[in-house]
Write a structure and sequence with these properties.
The protein is built from 7 helices and 8 strands. By secondary structure, it is of the alpha/beta class. The chain binds flavin mononucleotide.
């Protein structure tokens, strides 16, 4: 089995984000399971809200080019998304949209996504942990040819299990994230061939 290269990022750039906290727990688990993980902070890739006029005027912004290059090097993704009004975050949608665009006529369609896989996580203070948002994210990703791992994980009552230092302190949730991430790394490794 190949040790997969994974790119990981949170759909929230909020200070103290619960999603970033659980993402970091998954990244640690993935690294321990042998994956090579590129943990991105989307604050380092500030992008305008997608507008085709911007693209027509000057192609992809530099931050989108850099982000897309990192995606292209990866075999798969680990994503954690907040749920806003039952959908995944606009930051995530904007990021995915920019990186779905080709930079030249001879570039393969959806070069940053096609044939890759994704693990989806969410966290919320609410009772469902943001799970509803992951279903719409799943559909989007499948439509851009990403195989979404069947099992997803949503940490409910996140404010009770994530400490002030943005770390997941709860042993049961930590174990669930670890187990799921290990299974996903194994899956991603097989897919990467
Ligand atoms: C505009 C908005 C809409 C929200 N809608 C939901 C929702 O539908 N379901 C939910 O569980 N939490 C909802 N929340 C609460 C978020 O889950 C909460 O702010 C969470 O901390 C965001 O994730 P983060 O900690 O990673 O930034 C909403 C928050 C905002 C700002």
């Amino acid at each position: 089995m190949t040790q997969p290269k994974l790119v990981a990022f949170s759909g929230s750039t909020r200070q103290g984000s619960y999603n970033t906290a659980i993402l970091k727990a998954a990244v640690n688990a993935a690294s321990e399971a042998g994956a090579e993980v590129d943990l991105l902070d989307l604050r380092d890739f500030e992008l305008p809200l997608f507008n085709q006029d911007i693209e027509a005027g000057g192609g992809l912004p530099e931050a989108a080019r850099q982000l897309k290059a990192r995606f292209r090097r990866a075999d798969g993704f680990i994503l954690a998304s907040p749920e806003y009004n039952s959908a995944f975050s606009p930051l995530l949608k904007n990021t995915i949209d920019w990186c779905s665009r080709a930079e030249s006529d001879d570039e393969a369609p959806l070069a940053a996504y096609a044939g890759k896989c994704a693990l989806l996580l969410s966290a919320s203070p609410g009772a469902l942990g943001g799970l509803r948002g992951l279903y719409s994210l799943r559909i989007l990703l499948q439509n851009i040819q990403v195989t979404v791992y069947p099992e997803m994980l949503s940490v409910r009552s996140a404010h009770q299990v994530i400490g002030a230092d943005d770390n997941l302190t709860d042993a049961q949730w930590s174990a669930k994230i670890k187990n799921l991430t290990e299974a996903y790394v194994s899956f991603a490794g097989k897919l990467a061939g």
